[in-house]
Specification:
Layout lengths: L6 E3 L2 E3 L3 E3 L16 H12 L4 E8 L11 E2 L3 H16 L3 E7 L13 E2 L13 E2 L2 H20 L4 E6 L4 H4 L15 H12 L9 E6 L10 H8 L8 E5 L16 H11 L3 E4 L5 H9 L5 E3 L2 H5 L3 H8 L8 H4 L4
Parallel strand pairs: 3-4, 3-13, 4-5, 4-6, 6-9, 7-8, 9-10, 10-11, 11-12, 12-13
Antiparallel strand pairs: 1-2
Helix pairs in contact: 1-2, 3-5
């Protein structure tokens, strides 16, 4: 089965096609963006569970880039060195690890003086009104992402994922609901081209760059999966993998059901000829195998199921008659 076979994302070899997606844990309790022993245990335990690639939760490139006061950050070297210990722990268990770089934009709820967005439009009636980014502000954001990428490399991460989804800053540029600009940044692809060009100056060529996108904002006057393809088309040669999610740009929620985002991933895969990750209520090994074997996506991201059970994949090995893939210390539990 392809899902259990080693494969390459760019020049990075993964031992299987199961990915742990970035899921916020809101557990940096001193409001300083620092990881702690919880984060180490949380991520290393999934590496023990044989997940091929682990993507660390949304990590703010600046203090106002955090979603909450309890989110991780990578705007200073102290944070970088603490994250390095998690990287080492995951590597010791034979898995690869990526860091998701994020700027929360208008969805930042952290205790900061100012929050930012493409346009001065609040997320909802209960949210703060953001400041519309000036041209210089946008250059500062690009610089923050670049410095974060540089630190992620120094910390030893195997890949970075740039968060362009879920209504955070970069995805706010994608939707006409949140982007009312009248300058060149009305076209999100302009920002994406500039951002990727600068990141590639500091990010090693042999390490993959992943982007996570919301394929649609689910709004009547918003954008759809084909608009997404158009907006990311200019950077396709700069990225190695596309992680396909949806929604989050406004409070409007989709009708969620098992695998409800997989079709978006399939469309993006077919139209871009790039490998994709499918995510969204993929909970059973049978469902994951079906997606990969039928080439609906190249990888499956298992979120909630891995939160419930760090050894979800070991259970899958048993169901697939592949006990040979179970680590020796745990094999006795499946006899």
């Amino acid at each position: 089965m392809k899902i259990y076979q080693s494969n390459n994302v760019g020049k990075l070899t993964l031992k299987n096609r199961v990915i742990m997606p970035p899921m916020c844990t809101y557990s940096s309790h001193n409001q300083d963006g620092m990881p702690n022993s919880f984060h180490y245990t949380h991520y290393v335990s999934r590496a023990i569970g044989q997940v091929g690639l682990i993507i660390v939760e949304a990590t703010g490139v600046v203090p106002e880039g955090r979603i909450t006061d309890h989110c991780l950050g990578i705007w200073n070297d102290q944070q970088m060195h603490a994250l390095e210990e998690i990287v080492k722990g995951v590597h010791r268990q034979g898995s690869k690890i990526a860091l998701q770089l994020n700027h929360a934009g208008r969805k930042c709820t952290a205790n900061v003086d100012t929050i930012y967005a493409p346009s001065a439009i609040a997320y909802d009636d209960q949210s703060r009104k953001p400041k519309a980014l000036t041209h210089n502000d946008i250059q500062d954001v690009i610089h923050a992402f670049v410095q974060a990428a540089k630190r992620a490399n120094q910390a030893g991460f195997d890949a970075i994922e740039i968060h362009m989804a879920h209504g955070y800053l970069l995805s706010e540029f994608m939707s006409p609901i949140t982007n009312k600009r009248d300058d060149k940044y009305k076209d999100a692809s302009v920002l994406f081209v500039e951002l990727l060009a600068e990141i590639k100056k500091v990010w090693p060529k042999q390490k993959p760059i992943i982007i996570r996108v919301s394929a649609t904002d689910y709004e009547e006057n918003g954008y759809d999966v084909y608009d997404t393809i158009s907006m990311i088309e200019p950077i396709l040669n700069d990225v190695d993998l596309i992680h396909v999610s949806s929604g989050g740009i406004t409070p409007k929620a989709p009708r969620a059901y098992p695998g409800y985002q997989v079709d978006f991933a399939t469309i993006i895969k077919e139209k871009t000829n790039k490998p994709v990750v499918a995510v969204g209520l993929i909970t059973s090994i049978e469902q994951a195998i079906d997606i990969v074997e039928n080439e609906r996506a190249d990888y499956v991201a298992i979120g909630r199921a891995l939160l419930r059970n760090p050894h979800w994949l070991l259970e899958g090995f048993v169901q697939s008659n592949r006990k040979d893939l179970i680590p020796k210390p745990y094999l006795r539990g499946y006899r």
